[in-house]
Amino acid sequence: MAAIDRIGFAHIVAPTPDGPMVVHAPISVIGGRPQFHVARANRIAAHLDGATVIASLVDGHGYISPNWYAAPGNQVPTWNYKAIELVGTVRSIDEAALIDQLDALAAAHEPRVNPANPWTRGKMDDGVFQSMLRAIRGFEIVVETVRGTSKLSQNTSTVDRAGVIAGLRAAGHADLADAMTAE
Asked: Tell me, what's the pLDDT at 74?
């Protein structure tokens, strides 16, 4: 579950009477359960409570050029990635839990982007905060299944993997290159 907090963003797919819908939402683990929030005005919001969803969190991805292989003329472009999929039932959370979720999101991510002066709810006027709070709905996922999935050039030769690792590093995707070397 630590990866969920580190990634902090999910694509959540839910069935609705109008067909499947996806919402892109910040996510964090509070009390052992993944929680997220969406705008009340989002067309999926009314369909989430009680729905069985898949939440997909991408933990790094990058384009793989055929030019990185030993014989590029016999290859096609592809994509490497790491992801986590959660399957579970969504439940609405109350206002206090939603506030805890917002505080936890800020506490997890603010130090990364603004370590000298992280944002906290205490910097907001309470009336403005309450108004903004009424515009969102909070949810938690009661997780039934967790799946990790990845495509890290597992099906290529040692020489081609070395080329992909070097290409990913040069393209600024050291996280994927590191994941490939860890396998």
From this structure: 85
Q: 145-161 in b/e burial notation, b at 16+ Cβ within 10 A?
A: eeeeebebbeebeeebb
Q: How is residue 119 annotated by DSSP?
A: -
pTM as predicted: 0.89
Kind of pairing, strands 78-92 and 52-64?
Answer: antiparallel
HEC-encoded secondary structure of 90-108: EEECCHHHHHHHHHHHHHH
How far, in Å, CA of 129 to CA of 111, rounded? Answer: 21
d(CA 88, CA 133): 25
* Residue that has been written with the tokens 């370590």 in this structure: 115
DSSP letter at 32?
T
Which one-letter amino acid corresponds to residue 2?
Answer: A
For the stretch 140-171, pLDDT in tens is 999 999 999 999 999 899 999 999 999 999 99
CA-wise closest residue to 177 among 61, 33, 51, 4: 61
Render pLDDT for 42-86 as a digit per residue (tens, 0 to 9).
999 999 999 999 999 999 999 999 999 999 998 899 999 999 999
Distance CA 140, CA 152 (A): 31
Q: How many residues in total does the chain contain? A: 183
Tokens found for residue 166:
């070097």
Rounded CA-CA distance 169/160 in Å is 14
